[in-house]
Write a structure and sequence with these properties.
2 strands
Length: 92
């Protein structure tokens, strides 16, 4: 999948807060920690409420988990080669 450098950086930044979302609100054994009416229960529901597809969220979170040095190095290699970034051929 070939994408532009700016788009890839934007997707990485979008993935940063997504990877920090809670997997579930509260403890399943604690009644006091149950979500209030209208609150999103799971990470998937929280992401869906943002209008982001599950596949995009997964890809963006993977990009966000790549160490900055590796990410920048791969982008620089692609730029120096004059080729678009292909995420299937890269470490991320």
């Amino acid at each position: 999948m070939a994408v532009g450098f700016f788009q890839l950086r934007a997707e990485r930044r979008a993935g940063e807060p997504l990877k920090d979302l809670q997997k579930a609100v509260g403890n399943q054994h604690s009644k006091s920690a149950s979500p209030q009416r209208g609150e999103k229960h799971t990470k998937g529901e929280q992401i869906a409420s943002l209008g982001v597809s599950k596949k995009h969220a997964e890809n963006w979170q993977k990009l966000a988990s790549v160490p900055q040095e590796i990410f920048d190095g791969e982008l620089k290699r692609s730029q120096n080669a004059g080729s678009p970034v292909n995420t299937r051929e890269r470490q991320f």
